[in-house]
């Protein structure tokens, strides 16, 4: 089983390396953030953790959902399920690889805009967890989408809702109910955690617990869909 798993992972890495859109989505957040922050010439804009959230959503969510939708559309996923490797291990391996790609995108954003600023342990941990959470959401959409077109539309809407929520939530403190509601979005929670990480500290316990709860919910929903598809033979 281990040999089969390594062969599958090598094939995934080979395919990912040949995917030009993957490199575009990895480099795009860093390029956009650098252009915006340096658009004023010498008057550089302050760096915001919002750009790290953008990298999580653009690379983690959009890339992961697109990757899984493509595999389902081409029948690759169905073929892999017939291999001796358990489905759970296949799911973990792909999600882990995509999480590392997302983390690389976040690192490029940080290096492009913060230069030699120290990378604190809390920031690194929250960047890794945010990458894993965004990837998990993308995998859930990729698995649950009925077709590539439907899944692509869903992932775009989810990405926009999460990103706009993270953009607008800090400015809506006067609207108590709306601010509290948006505060439970995973992107807003990740933004709060990353802000704390940039300051060299850990986020509030409530934020950490809420992020963990989101991850458990997404993973449970993914497991439920996989079991249902296995029963239905899809």
Give a written overview of the molecule.
With 234 residues, the protein is an all-alpha fold. The protein has one domain. Helices cover 79% and strands 0% of the residues. It contains ten helices and no strands. It has helices spanning 2-18, 20-37, 50-74, 76-80, 87-114, 121-144, 148-168, 176-182, 186-198, 205-232. The radius of gyration is 18 Å and the shape is globular. The mean pLDDT is 81.
Could you give the topology of this structure?
Blueprint: H1 2-18, H2 20-37, H3 50-74, H4 76-80, H5 87-114, H6 121-144, H7 148-168, H8 176-182, H9 186-198, H10 205-232
Helix pairs in contact: 1-5, 2-3, 2-5, 3-5, 3-6, 3-7, 3-9, 5-6, 6-7, 6-9, 6-10, 7-9, 9-10
Defining key terms:
234 residues; mainly alpha; single chain; 79% helix
Count of folded domains: 1
Q: Kindly name the structural category.
A: mainly alpha
Largest beta-sheet characterization:
none
Q: Work out the helicity level.
A: over 70%
Q: Into which percentage range does the β-strand content fall?
A: under 5%
The residue-averaged pLDDT reads 81
Radius of gyration: 18 Å
Q: What coarse outline follows from CA principal-axis ratios?
A: globular
Distance between the termini: 23 Å
Query: Any low-confidence stretches, pLDDT <50, length ≥5?
Result: none
Secondary-structure element sequence? HHHHHHHHHH
Number of helices: 10
- What is the number of beta strands? 0
């Amino acid at each position: 089983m281990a040999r089969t798993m390594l062969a599958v992972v090598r094939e995934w890495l080979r395919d990912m390396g040949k995917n030009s859109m993957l490199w575009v989505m990895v480099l795009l957040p860093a390029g956009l953030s650098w252009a915006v922050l340096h658009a004023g010439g010498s008057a550089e804009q302050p760096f915001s953790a919002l750009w790290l959230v953008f990298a999580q959503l653009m690379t983690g969510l959009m890339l992961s959902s697109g990757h899984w939708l493509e595999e389902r559309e081409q029948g690759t996923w169905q073929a892999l399920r017939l291999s001796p490797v358990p489905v759970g291990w296949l799911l973990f391996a792909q999600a882990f690889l995509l999480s590392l790609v997302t983390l690389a995108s976040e690192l490029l954003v940080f290096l492009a805009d913060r230069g030699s600023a120290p990378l604190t342990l809390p920031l690194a941990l929250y960047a890794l967890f945010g990458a894993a959470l965004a990837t998990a959401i993308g995998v859930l959409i990729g698995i649950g989408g009925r077709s590539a077109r439907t899944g692509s539309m869903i992932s775009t809407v989810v990405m926009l809702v999460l990103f706009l929520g993270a953009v607008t939530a800090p400015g809506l403190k006067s609207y108590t109910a709306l601010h509290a509601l948006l505060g439970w979005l995973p992107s807003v929670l990740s933004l709060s955690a990353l802000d704390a990480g940039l300051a060299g500290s850990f986020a509030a316990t409530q934020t950490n617990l809420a992020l963990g709860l989101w991850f458990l919910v997404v993973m449970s929903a993914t497991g439920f869909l996989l079991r249902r598809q296995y029963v239905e033979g899809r």
